[in-house]
Amino acid sequence: MGDLAGRLAVITGAASGIGLATAIALAEQGGNVILVDRDGPGTEAALAKLPGAGHRAVVLDVTDENGWVDLAGQIERSSGSLDILVNNAGFGTFRSIADTTLDHWRAIIAVNLDSVFLGCRALLPMLANSPVGGAIVNMSSIRGIAGGANAASYCAAKGGVRLFTKALALECAALGNRVRANSIHPGHIETPLTAAAHGDPAVHARLLADVPMGRIGTAEDIAQAIVFLASDRSSYMTGAELVVDGGSTAQ
Ligand code: NAD
């Protein structure tokens, strides 16, 4: 038993890093988790790491509009409602604006921002049916609040997630559908996405110097904050942005 006992959660990007840690943390709190990722073998391996029963894996590219519609249909047929949606899948690469092709720009916007819109649009009716009130957590970044050199497409996408989430929260409140929506903004976190950067001593030292708490964050640090936003402990929070960065943006 836990804060999320019996609640049904969808989490994207669940095969690795923050998504995997969050799936485990949701399951530890008693949630039933639908792990979504485009990496089929990775998602099956992640499924095996979750405590408890009642979880399942779905292979989906989060930029695929029809795939989201299919997932909504599956949930509608199996349970008729959804309690938690964590739109976590995403990535970024460092590239100057001069070196950013339109295709690259569109790929970054698609995976980080279009996916959030598609997921929320497809699953909002299921979240509105939640008997406990739905909770959406959208993955932004400190790069959705402050800019970063050579990260313009990623910053544009994550900044878009931040304001999309506020607009969504207000729309849900106006509808009175009891769905809360908040964004989360990690700082420098060591995951497979950032392994190469942290494996380079010079880059690692530069990132560490940016963190007043003096350590790089872990996927579990973010997972616990997501569990908070997904649970009734944050019942009066909607349209908020939760920064989890060891103090980086407080400077
Ligand atoms: P990760 O690479 O470890 O995990 C990302 C997962 O998303 C992978 O399993 C990957 O297969 C999946 N994924 C990627 N594109 C997908 C797609 N189109 N469809 C379905 N699944 C897809 O990365 P992470 O560090 O855990 O990052 C998770 C999220 O956190 C991302 O949105 C990232 O931008 C954000 N974030 C990470 C950091 C950090 O320092 N690691 C900081 C701020 C924000």
Distance between the termini: 39 Å
Overall mean confidence score, pLDDT = 98
CATH names the topology as Rossmann fold
Task: Please state the CA-atom Rg, rounded to the nearest Å.
Answer: 17 Å
Number of strands: 9
Oligomeric assembly: single chain
Number of helices: 8
CATH superfamily: NAD(P)-binding Rossmann-like Domain
Q: Tell me roughly what share of residues is in helical segments.
A: 40-55%
**Shape type:** globular
Architecture per CATH nomenclature, i.e. the level-2 architecture: 3-Layer(aba) Sandwich
Low-confidence stretches: none
What proportion strand? 15-25%
Q: Please, how many domains?
A: 1
Topology diagram in text:
Layout: E1 8-12, H1 17-28, E2 32-37, H2 40-48, E3 56-59, H3 65-78, E4 84-87, H4 102-128, E5 135-139, H5 152-175, E6 180-186, E7 189-190, H6 195-199, H7 201-209, E8 217-218, H8 219-230, E9 241-244
Parallel strand pairs: 1-2, 1-4, 2-3, 4-5, 5-6, 6-9, 7-8
This protein binds nicotinamide-adenine-dinucleotide.
